[in-house]
Amino acid sequence: MTNFYKTLSLLALLLMVWSCGEDNDTNFTLKGSIKDLKKGVVYLQKEVDSTIVHLDSMVISGQPEFTLKTNLEEPMLLYLKLFKNDGEEHYIPFFADEGVTEIKTTLKNFNFDAEIKGSKPQDLLNEYTKVMSKFNNQNLDIIEANFLAQKNNDSIAADSLNKASEVLYKRKYSYTIQFALNNRDNIIAPYLALYEVPSANPIYVDSIYNGLTENVKNSFYGKKLGDFIAERNSEQ
Question: What CATH code would you report for 3-117?
Answer without folding.
Answer: 2.60.40.1120
